[in-house]
Amino acid sequence: MQAWQVHENGEPSEVMRLAEVERPAPGDGQVLLRVRAANVNFPDALMCRGQYQVRPPMPFTPGLEICGETEDGRRVIANPTLPRGGFAEYALADARALLPAPESLDDAEAAALHIGYQTGWFGLHRRARLRAGETLLVHAAAGGVGSAAVQLGKAAGATVIGVVGGAKKAAVARELGCDVVVDRRAEDVVAAVKEATGGRGADVVYDSVGGAAYTQSAKLVAFEGRIVVVGFASGTIPSPALNHALVKNYAILGLHWGLYATKDPGLILRCHEQLAELAARGAIKPLVSERVPLSDAAAAVQRVADGVTTGRVAVIPENGAVA
What we know:
Blueprint (H helix, E strand, L loop, with lengths): L1 E5 L5 H4 E5 L9 E10 L2 H8 L15 E5 L5 E4 L11 E5 L4 E2 L6 H6 L2 H13 L7 E5 L4 H12 L3 E6 L2 H10 L3 E4 L5 H8 L5 E6 L4 H9 E9 L12 H7 L2 E4 L5 H4 L1 H16 L7 E6 L3 H9 L6 E5 L7
Parallel strand pairs: 8-9, 8-11, 9-10, 11-12, 12-13, 14-15
Antiparallel strand pairs: 1-2, 3-4, 3-6, 3-15, 4-5, 5-7
């Protein structure tokens, strides 16, 4: 079968190589899945660079989430077992962690319902306790993680402010349902948010960017607001001023979604059931901006790494294509 492999760290377009490899054999508790669609996530690029918290042994295949098919024909969502990730024709996964793919979504959309939406649900509902009528600010609102948070925020009855970089991404954020869109390249983010909220600020800030975005978050979060830290796509990990959090009465909440798989796996299933229900009634629908063949996976990961994509990019192996 064909699979992308990384033999050394570097930029995805330089270190990912398409190779012919043996089909993996399931171990104890594992299942072999035919990959129908594999989603590109920013951590795929970080793994290629050797900057992710998980460092699989080389050579490894990136690809953290897939919609796959079991040998008995069930369509499922899974996190492939590294070092054999999802950018391949077949992958292995933990049989106990398989989730049913919603019938309302196609393969690429189903793959995209997993990490980004689970992270959004846990961040907004479990950690920040977002309430209807509150104001939610989402950094990088047109991206894969951000677009999921926007839709989940709207589904929860929040007023959503999306921060984006550029006119193209601003248009995407409006289409996603943002009530207010702020282009950080053309506007002062803090001033624009203060104006949009009558000086109050945002009750919940969803920050997957870090760096300068976090600095803005601390300035525009409301009294008793919550900043949810879910990642550092900017490449800069901020150092929060805790005295500022004290005098302004706001909370800084960290979220590592992957921990729930070991700490409380039942919550992941419960979350998936709620996400599937939201998808079934059209309240959420993953934004898949591109569907590319397996041969273009390295270029797709590089585009995500460079921050030039919107929504999700899905890799569709030839054997996973559905007419």
